[in-house]
Design a protein that fits this description.
Blueprint: H1 8-11, H2 15-26, H3 45-54, E1 66-69, H4 76-84, E2 87-92, H5 95-111, H6 115-133, H7 141-144, E3 146-156, E4 163-165, E5 171-173, E6 180-187, E7 192-198, H8 203-206, E8 211-213, E9 216-218, E10 225-226, H9 228-238, E11 239-249, E12 253-257, H10 267-281, H11 313-337, H12 339-349, H13 351-359, E13 366-367, E14 372-373, E15 387-391, H14 401-413, E16 424-427, E17 440-445, H15 455-459, H16 463-470, H17 493-496, H18 499-520, E18 521-531, H19 536-548, E19 551-559, E20 578-585, H20 586-591, H21 601-615, H22 619-635, H23 640-643, H24 646-663
Parallel strand pairs: 1-2, 1-17, 2-16, 17-18
Antiparallel strand pairs: 3-4, 3-11, 3-15, 5-6, 6-7, 8-9, 9-10, 11-12, 13-14, 18-20, 19-20
């Protein structure tokens, strides 16, 4: 074998600068391609570009390099590589993610330099039409300028038949000097509730909650009590959404009690619009069933068993009408701009569907600290909210579609369009790659993080609606009514049968991907993976895959690229810091003198502590590095059969973790 030189990423990586740039980028998404479509757990572009660049041979121009991302997801790595001029390839299983990549990497390129202007021009016409055709859905839109509607769950007591408000989040505003809350004051004479907006919640008012505990309920009138199981049945059979307050926008928001809900709601109009739209599109409202996974898809416990049930009828009507408008405008766009531009316009304006599904459903929380709407599909699963906010997305309030359109157009304008390089994205399973041997200079990716996110469940809240809008233009992507979760490489005990089976499924799948990566990368190339998890199983499954795939980890780098208010940081008390793992085929590592016998676990811990101290990294980062290094070394001593079994692998990894605990006090794994 010819002499193999180390790549820059194996020698030095300025992790402090990369981490700072990545964290900063997460606060500036208004000018990022990430704002165009919804996807989850995407890395900053600056981080992806740095990892790709450092993984390449510096003696050759970037334009001559071929790089593969086998888990394209939201297309961060292919886009970052395109900015560098690298010839990027990628694979993606999920239909929604594949569409995102196709739009950003292919349709953007074919649409020409005027796409941002066309998106703003045609997008405003779409939204103006949507606003006109949904006017009857919002009786107070034109007269009162109502921008937000605040809902709470309410149930009928099975003992006495009276109402039981299930409100848990009464605050409308916590801004200094303008605190407001909505309270439901019981009237014990009439056995009803008076809804009021107040500037504080007194102890007496707070004491009138029907919740007697976190998971127990008590009727305020007959004192009948319900346990957790009874509450779930009660919500499924005898509950409804109750409008409690609205927000009116003048120069600032004003919160008003919804004492007469009929002034703000017209259910019959929503039913008519949905029926008309489905007939016009020749499709039905998506009745995609949500997996009933308590603790992950919590709305299913309380009767929200389909994607459509996550939306109020009015929210659903706005969604279907937007899909219909987008579908019906595609033919005029073709006549006006030609097929390539028309497809691009339709694809990128479908980002408005993403925004509606993500920011206007029964899963959306009101954030009283800044009077904004929280995302409903932030992951890893779905929350059950007893109080949610509904917006009028066509007024200038929180999460409105006109502002979202501006962000979509700005994000599209940031997509790199190189004249001589085209990213090549393949829809398929990375466990079997369609590329020849020794084809790529590097493989650089951000794989699924074991059980941190269930992508297909979240994607199915958006994909079926985009299908209503785009199946005519993209039948090859949107032919099926939902995404195919059977190919998803995540550890899901409810899919795979047990925790042990889920571990084996993920670890074996990653072994197959890494073996394929070893096959398609050049002998002198590297495989760079960015990964994070906080449990032993989350890490042991991946490291066992490296050993089984015949790879040698040649370098490790810690990165902190999450928002600073999130729990992941280099000072966390578990392996939550993102780790960059650089690896080579074992034969190549051996030729470089890197495959010699591994030191003891204690020696590896000592080495990691010294390295962390020299770089001014916290001890928890040292623990991360030591664990991965020691796990690779000790697992390399197991047989192939043992490496495929969770119990055998985790037993070794627990012993390593215990040794680390002894040497680095305060460090621990999560209990997952």
């Amino acid at each position: 074998m010819t002499e193999i030189q180390k790549r820059p990423i194996e020698q030095y990586l300025d992790v402090a600068t990369i981490s700072e740039a990545g964290t900063s980028e997460r606060y500036q998404r208004a000018s990022s391609p990430h704002t165009v479509f919804t996807w989850w757990a995407r890395r900053p572009f600056s981080t992806a570009a740095d990892l790709i660049s450092a993984s390449l041979d510096p003696a050759r121009p970037a334009e001559a390099a071929k790089v593969l991302d086998p888990f394209v997801g939201g297309a961060t790595f292919p886009l970052a590589g395109a900015r560098l001029g690298v010839e990027m390839y990628g694979m993606e299983n999920n239909e929604l993610a594949y569409f995102t990549a196709k739009a950003l990497l292919e349709l953007r390129r074919s649409a020409g330099p005027q796409l941002r202007h066309l998106l703003m021009l045609e997008g405003r016409e779409v939204l103006d039409q949507l606003k006109a055709e949904t006017r009857d859905l919002y009786p107070a839109r034109d007269t009162e300028n109502i921008i937000c509607y605040f809902w709470s769950r309410s149930a009928a007591c099975t003992s006495c038949g009276t109402e039981m408000p299930l409100q848990k989040r009464p605050w409308l505003s916590k801004k200094a000097g303008r605190q407001r809350a909505v309270v439901q004051q019981p009237d014990f004479d009439t056995k009803s509730f008076d809804v009021r907006v107040v500037d504080s919640i007194s102890a007496a008012e707070a004491g009138h909650s029907a919740w007697s505990g976190r998971n127990t309920l008590r009727c305020l009138f007959c004192r009948h009590e319900y346990d957790r199981k009874e509450i779930a049945e009660l919500i499924r059979t005898a509950s409804a959404d109750k409008l409690t307050a609205v927000a009116k926008l003048d120069k600032r928001k004003h919160f008003l009690p919804a004492t007469h809900p009929h002034e703000f709601i017209t259910d019959a109009v929503a039913e008519r619009i949905i029926k008309e739209d489905c007939a016009a599109l020749g499709l039905q409202v998506p009745e995609v069933v949500i997996p009933a996974w308590s603790g992950i898809t919590n709305p299913t416990v309380y009767g929200h068993e389909t994607v459509a049930s996550l939306f109020t009828e009015r929210q659903l009507a706005v969604l279907t009408r937007l899909c219909r408008i987008l579908s019906e405008r595609q033919r005029p766009w073709e006549e006006k701009y030609g097929e390539p531009r028309a497809k691009a316009i339709a694809a990128f304006l479908s980002g408005l569907v993403d925004q509606l599904a993500d920011w206007n459903s029964r899963l959306c929380m009101w954030i009283s600290q800044n009077e904004q709407v929280g995302r409903g599909l932030s992951g890893p699963g779905m929350p059950m909210l007893w109080d949610f906010v509904e917006i009028d997305p066509l007024l200038r309030g929180p999460a409105n579609l006109y502002a979202k359109l501006e962000r979509i157009a700005a994000g599209v304008d940031q997509v790199p369009v190189a004249a001589d390089q085209e990213a090549k994205i393949t829809r398929g399973d990375s466990r079997t790659m369609p590329y020849p041997d020794a084809f790529f200079d590097a493989v650089v990716t951000d794989p699924p993080y074991y059980d941190n996110l269930y992508y297909s469940i979240l994607a199915d809240c958006i994909y079926p609606f985009k299908r209503m809008a785009l199946v005519g233009s993209f039948p090859e992507i949107f032919s099926d009514p939902r995404t195919d979760s059977t190919r998803e490489l995540t550890a899901a005990p409810r899919r795979q049968g047990s925790t042990a089976d889920a571990w084996t499924y993920f670890s074996t799948g990653m072994t197959q991907v890494l073996r394929e990566a070893r096959r398609v990368v050049k002998p002198e190339g590297v495989i760079t993976v960015c990964y994070a998890h906080s449990s032993i199983s989350g890490w042991s499954s991946l490291i066992a895959a490296y050993v089984r795939a015949g790879l040698k980890i040649t370098q490790l780098w810690p990165l902190t690229i999450e928002r600073t208010h999130r729990p992941r940081s280099m000072k966390s008390a578990a392996i939550n810091t993102s780790l960059v793992l650089v690896a080579r085929p074992s034969a190549a590592a051996g030729a470089m003198g890197l495959a010699r016998e591994a030191p003891s676990t204690v020696a590896l811990i000592t080495t990691a502590l010294r390295r962390a101290a020299a770089a001014d990294w916290p001890d928890d980062v040292a623990a991360t590095l030591a664990f991965v290094s020691a796990a690779e070394a000790r697992l390399g001593e197991l047989t192939e059969e043992m490496l495929s079994q969770q119990d055998a692998v985790n037993a070794v990894c627990r012993r390593i973790a215990e040794t680390i605990y002894e040497n680095i006090p305060g460090f621990s794994f999560s209990s997952r």
